[in-house]
Specification:
- Strand 1 (about 60) and strand 2 form a beta hairpin.
- About 80% of the residues lie in helices and about 5% in strands.
- The longest helix is centred in the C-terminal third of the chain and has 40 residues, at about 70-110.
- By secondary structure, the chain is mainly alpha-helical.
- A two-stranded antiparallel sheet has the order 1-2.
Length: about 130
Amino acid sequence: MKNFWEEFKAFAMKGNVLDLAVAVVIGTAFSAIVNSLVANIITPLVGILFNGVDFKNEVWLVRGVEIQYGVFLQSVFDFFIIALSIFFFIRVLAKLKRKKKIEEVAEEAPKVDPQEKLLTEIRDILLEQNKK
C-alpha cells in the first residue's frame, strides 16, 4: 500500500498534472466571466436587435410537450461566444509570445564588427572576380 501512495504522490507532483490543475481553475474563472458577458450584456443586446425576443422562453408545443428550442439556441450562441473569446485570448497570447521571441532572437544575434564586415565584403568581391 505504501508503494501505491508513493507512486500516486510522484504522479500528482509531476509538472503536467499541476499545470492541468492550474488550467482548470483559470478556465473555470474565465468561463464564469464569459458566461456573465453573454448572459448580462450580449444576450440583452441581441434581444434588442430582435425586438426584445428572449430566446430562452421560445418553445414549440408538440402534442402537449414543450420543446424548448430557445434554450438550445442560447446554448449554441453561448458556445460560439466562448469559443470566440478563447480564440482571441489565445491569439493575443501567441502574439505576445512571438514578440518576446523576436526580442530574444534580436538580443542573441551576434554583433558584427565593422572591420569584419568590410573584410567579408572584400572577400566576396575577390571571389566573384576570380570566377570571371
